Each structure stands twice: as structure tokens, then as C-alpha cells.
Amino acid sequence: MEASVGIRAPRRAWGVGFEKTQRGAYCTGSVPAVRFTADKLPQRLVLGTDPRRSTGPVTRAARLRPSCCKKSAGTEKVHYSADEALILQQKAQDVLPYLDGRCVYLVGMMGSGKTTVGKILAEVLGYSFFDSDKLVEKAVGISSVAEIFQLHSEAFFRDNESEVLRDLSSMHRLVVATGGGAVIRPINWSYMKKGLTVWLDVPLDALARRITAVGTASRPLLHQESGDPYAKAYAKLTSLFEQRMDSYANADARVSLEHIASKQGHNDVTILTPSIIATEALLKIESFLTEKTMVRN
Ligand SMILES: Nc1ncnc2c1ncn2[C@@H]1O[C@H](COP(=O)(O)OP(=O)(O)OP(=O)(O)O)[C@@H](O)[C@H]1O
Ligand SMILES: O=C(O)C1=C[C@@H](O)[C@@H](O)[C@H](O)C1
């Protein structure tokens, strides 16, 4: 039986259209829905039969129908300038033959833009977008990571996260936004290294600002009931980053916002748009893959 999941994927790698707005011509990510057959999905994600992970009976259909990814490229409109879109499309075309269908895993701290940039990359590469946090929520049958931490434990969440990454590692042509802490378990690297890993390296003050702008309720490791939210988030992000930076550095490619800003002749990372960051990610992926090919030859 065929079951569809709420994944929308581009018909072609350059599946963006142009839209005239008051601010000029913008490209919009707007793509047709595709159907994924149940037999192409990892068994665990389809059936979710492990009672440890379920707080109640969850039918196969219920697990499949809601998107098992954060909204993929196309379900929300991504706006970028016509120039940015052309550069992105060109770079994606350059990278695709080297990628050869391998998945791209984005790693980085909470709020580093894995979801935002990941959706753009999926769009231009013609890949599907998945968010590992969302897949864990689906597998467990609980609708938020914060609640999974609260009702079970962080360890329970991490076990499920590893299983999700293992399942994804047998698939192709995906961009995966991983959870911020996925890098801490070596086993997860063995799954992610089946594809290409890209670290979005964002200064901690920019992260704290982004996160406090949207609130910390959905991010259990940062949530504090009292105190200045920016200062608390900044302090916690700093201690997490100190524990994790060597793990992030395992990634095949590093996209440093400070580095992009300095190439542009300034030091303000806040003006870097997600599409500029996505373009840099493609450049870094290309360098990594072409260097690897040269070494092989
Ligand atoms: N380049 C950018 N400039 C400014 N804000 C951004 C940028 N990229 C993402 N954001 C904002 O930062 C917040 C976090 O982004 P996003 O959800 O993509 O990060 P994430 O790495 O997936 O986070 P998490 O791992 O916590 O789910 C969002 O509010 C998003 O709109
Ligand atoms: O940085 C982390 O440890 C986390 C990041 C989020 O994506 C979630 O995976 C969860 O809140 C833990």
C-alpha cells in the first residue's frame, strides 16, 4: 500500500519561480508535492512499533500523514533576490555530480540555521528536507522535544535520535537538519558520515540573540524560568559549545559566518542572509568533494 508523507520536493533542482513584489523580483521556493511510498521509508519510521517510544497507540497512517520533516522547502515560501537565486542554482548544479545522491547533514548549535539553510539547500539540490528532531517526535509519539525531555529524559531522546539517524543513513538525496546535540555521540557520526556533514558555525552572541527573539520554550536545554533570557541563553550556549566544539569540527565542511562576513569586508554576521550562507555551504561541499576526488586520482 502506498502512503504519502508530507514531504514536498522540487520537480527539478532549479525549482524556484520568480515573483514580483513591491521590493523587486524575488524567487520563491514553491514546489509540487511528491509521494513517498511506505516501502521507501525506513521501517521504524513507518511503523514505530516500539512500545518504549510510544505513549499510546499510534496508527501507521497517523505516523505517516503529518510531515515527518519540518516543513520542507516549498511548504513555506523562501524569499531571496534573483541574483542570489541564480548563484545558488548555479552552485547547486556544480555540486550535484560530486554529491552523487549522498545526503547532506547539517550540524551546529541550536539556532544556527540548520532548518532555514537546510530548506534552501534541499530546494536547489532537488533533495527532500528532514529535521531529525521532528522525526524523533514522530517516532516517540510526542509532539515536542521539550515534552520528550520532560516525560522521559535526555538519554531517552538521544537513543531515539541515534535510531532516527541510523534509519536516515540508508536513504539518499536528503538534506537533514540534525539536533544540536547529535554530534556528541560517536555512533551518530558513523551514520552521518555516509553522507556529507556540514557545520554551521555561528558566533554565540548571534545565536543567543536569535534564540531569545523566538523564546526558549521549545529548547529544553536553554529554557530558564527566570532571569534575563539573553544572558542565560548566552551562558548556556557557551558551556554547551565548549563541550561540543571538537565534535562539530569533525564535519567534512565548516561554514563560518564570521569567515563569510570577513570575506565581504565587514564583521557583522547579522546581515548574512540564509541564501548567502547556503551558497557558502555549497562552495564548501564542492571544495571538500573535489579535493577528495583529486586525492583518489
Ligand atoms: N541567516 C539568518 N539570519 C538571521 N536569522 C536567522 C538566520 N538563519 C536562521 N535565522 C533564525 O534563527 C532562528 C533559528 O533558526 P533555525 O530554526 O533554522 O535553526 P536550527 O539550527 O534549525 O535550530 P534548532 O537546532 O534549535 O532547531 C529562527 O528564528 C530563524 O528564523
Ligand atoms: O543542542 C541540543 O542538545 C539540542 C538541540 C535541539 O535541536 C534538540 O535536539 C534538543 O533540544 C537538544
UniProtKB/TrEMBL annotation:
Q: Which UniProt keywords apply?
A: Amino-acid biosynthesis, Aromatic amino acid biosynthesis, ATP-binding, Chloroplast, Kinase, Magnesium, Metal-binding, Nucleotide-binding, Plastid, Transferase, Transit peptide
Pathway in which this enzyme or protein is active: Metabolic intermediate biosynthesis; chorismate biosynthesis; chorismate from D-erythrose 4-phosphate and phosphoenolpyruvate: step 5/7
* Required co-factors: Mg(2+)
Entry's Pfam families? SKI
Supply one GO BP term. shikimate metabolic process
Q: What class of enzyme is it?
A: transferase
The cross-references to InterPro entries, in alphabetical order and at most eight, read:
P-loop_NTPase, Shikimate/glucono_kinase, Shikimate_kinase/TSH1, Shikimate_kinase_CS
Say yes or no: keyword Transferase present.
yes
The name on file for this protein is shikimate kinase
Q: Native species of this protein?
A: Digitaria exilis
